[in-house]
Design a protein that fits this description.
single chain, about 150 residues, mainly alpha, DUF4149 domain-containing protein
C-alpha cells in the first residue's frame, strides 16, 4: 500500500471517529449532566461544534491532498464519495451551522423559538457523512490492491 493511500485511510478513520464522538455522543450527553441548563449546553455546543468544524476542514484539506496526489490511480467510486463528503461539509458549514448558531444564541438570550427542521437535517447529513467516510476507507483499502 502506498504511503499516501495509507495516510488517506488514517485521515478518514480519524475524521469518522471525531464526528461520531462529538455529534453522536458529546452533543446529547452534556445535557444529561447535573446542572447543565439548556443555555449552558447550547453555549458549550456552539464552541465544540465550531472546533469540530475547523478540525473537519483541516482533515478535509489533508484528505484532498491525498486525493489530488493519487488522482490518476483511484477509482471513480473514491472520487464520487469524496465529492459527497466535501459537499456535505460545505452545506453543514455554510448553510446549517450558521442557522443553528443563531438559533442557539437566541435561545441563550431567553427567546422561545418554534421548532425547526434544521437540526434534523444536520443530524441526517452527519449520518450520511459518517457512512460515506467509512465507505471511502474501505474503497481506499480495496483500491490499494492489498491482499489480506
Amino acid at each position: 500500500m502506498r504511503l499516501t493511500a495509507f495516510g488517506g485511510i488514517v485521515i478518514l478513520m480519524f475524521w469518522t471517529g471525531a464526528v461520531c464522538a462529538i455529534s453522536f455522543m458529546e452533543a446529547w450527553i452534556k445535557f444529561q449532566a447535573p446542572g447543565v441548563t439548556l443555555p449552558i449546553g447550547l453555549s458549550i455546543g456552539m464552541r465544540v461544534f465550531r472546533a469540530l468544524n475547523l478540525l473537519e476542514w483541516l482533515l478535509a484539506a489533508g484528505y484532498m491532498f491525498v486525493v489530488v496526489r493519487e488522482y490518476s490511480g483511484i477509482s471513480s467510486g473514491i472520487k464520487w464519495f469524496s465529492g459527497v463528503v466535501v459537499s456535505i461539509l460545505l452545506v453543514q458549514s455554510f448553510a446549517l451551522l450558521p442557522v443553528l448558531a443563531e438559533r442557539a444564541v437566541r435561545i441563550i438570550n431567553g427567546e422561545t423559538l418554534p421548532g425547526s427542521p434544521v437540526h434534523i437535517i444536520y443530524v441526517v447529513l452527519e449520518l450520511m457523512k459518517v457512512i460515506a467516510l467509512v465507505v471511502l476507507s474501505f474503497k481506499w483499502y480495496r483500491n490499494s490492491n492489498v491482499k489480506a
